[in-house]
Amino acid sequence: MGIPILDTLLGIVKTPLDRLIPDKNERQRFEHELELEVLRAGLAQMEINKAEASHPSVFVAGWRPFIGWVCGAALAWHFIGQDIVNWLRVAFFPDMPAPPVFGGTETLMTVLLSMLGLGGLRTVEKIKGVSRDRWKAD
User: What residue ranges do the domains of the chain occupy?
Assistant: First the structure.
């Protein structure tokens, strides 16, 4: 397919197909349809992203960037910044007491992964045509 992460993910899904679909031609047809569905999902997500980004309200267009920057900054601080600052403190100011350690990494990861998961579920709803917007129109 040419997209490394998709090749890896589809490789995981395709591995059991040898046992589930013994006919080579049928398996290739199924793999092709699977790849097309993954690509369609990606295109649908791009359209959703464009629509959200063009919305005039910051509450619609700005939630993803906000969550991304907050979670990205928090993860960068927790896994990189905190260690560098602590190393500099020990190297140059050995008598200075250690700063307090902030917990909450589990909560941060829960929020980040939940938001990413909800975004994925919303995409699936839109692809299948069962999103709330469709029900309002009917």
Answer: 1-55, 62-138
* Phi, psi for residue 106 in degrees, rounded to 5: -60, -40
Supply the pTM of this predicted model: 0.40
Q: Tell me the three-class secondary structure of the chain, residue by residue.
A: CCCHHHHHHHHHHHCCHHHHCCCHHHHHHHHHHHHHHHHHHHHHHHHHHHHHHCCCCHHHHCHHHHHHHHHHHHHHHHHHHHHHHHHHHHHHCCCCCCCCCCCCHHHHHHHHHHHHHHHHHHHHHHHHCCCHHHHHHC
Cα angle, residue 78 at apex, residues 77 and 83 outer, rounded to 5°: 85
Residues 38-87 pLDDT 10s: 788 878 878 877 777 776 766 566 766 777 778 788 888 888 888 898 89
**Alpha carbon distance 46, 52 (integer Å):** 10
